[in-house]
Amino acid sequence: xxxxxxxxxxxxxxxxxxxxxxxxxxxxxxxxxxxxxxxxxxxxxxxxxxxxxxxxxxxxxxxxxxxxxxxxxxxxxxxxxxxxxxxxxxxxxxxxxxxxxxxxxxxxxxxxxxxxxxxxxxxxxxxxxxxxxxxxxxxxxxxxxxxxxxxxxxxxxxxxxxxxxxxxxxxxxxxxxxxxxxxxxxxxxxxxxxxxxxxxxxxxxxxxxxxxxxxxxxxxxxxxxxxxxxxxxxxxxxxxxxxxxxxxxxxxxxxxxxxxxxxxxxxxxxxxxxxxxxxxxxxxxxxxxxxxxxxxxxxxxxxxxxxxxxxxxxxxxxxxxxxx
Length: 324
Fold this sequence. Notes:
alpha/beta
């Protein structure tokens, strides 16, 4: 895999490439025995992922902040696929109380959970703190998903144990993880306004997604749990994620148009890692264009991954003790 493959769409070792769509990577796959939770499934590549997995028979739960948009997404999926099994639950990842409420509501349904797709995110937003007092991109893109995964992990383990079906967690990272702060993660100055960069803060949050996946994968392997964890870069896609930098993205699109994907192509790697049989047993890897790809040195640093894991748990404890 290289720049030529990205431009031409030529397939890599998996048989798929940058031009492959989500429907193509899931063709012939029966997902009727799977239950999937996908965050941010009401728009963009999240919606396309939800649509395609529902098309393959999965029971899809769309977790979304905007319930009106989520309901519209559900109706559009069902309109074109009357057999689709789609439910919606509210989730605001920037608010830990909302994450806890979502998990409680999902667990109350008493249904299995085979696949968790941590898809939602924000990008390049101006400096602001979440209502929990955490830098917004880190809070939404990393900590909210970290907490959600923690709350749902026992359900995934028990589902895998009861059914014998491997559980899979997919973290949507980004090639932007390559461009982060010089120390990788600003543990000591996370909320510092003076040193804030919207681009570097986004890269930091995407690096955190990778480190989270890698450390969780290590722990689950150590435990012997039948759950895998992988990270992916979906590609460059013009979606609502880029609402804070529309002009910049349009300029980038003009300069690098051959590298950009449409939404069906953008959802392909998520779907591949989530349900393709070739991914059985694969964990702790980073995928781009449905093929394994080398992540940054920071992303592959086990000490940094462990440090972020401990830091995230400490941050959760600190916030939650004030809430409850």
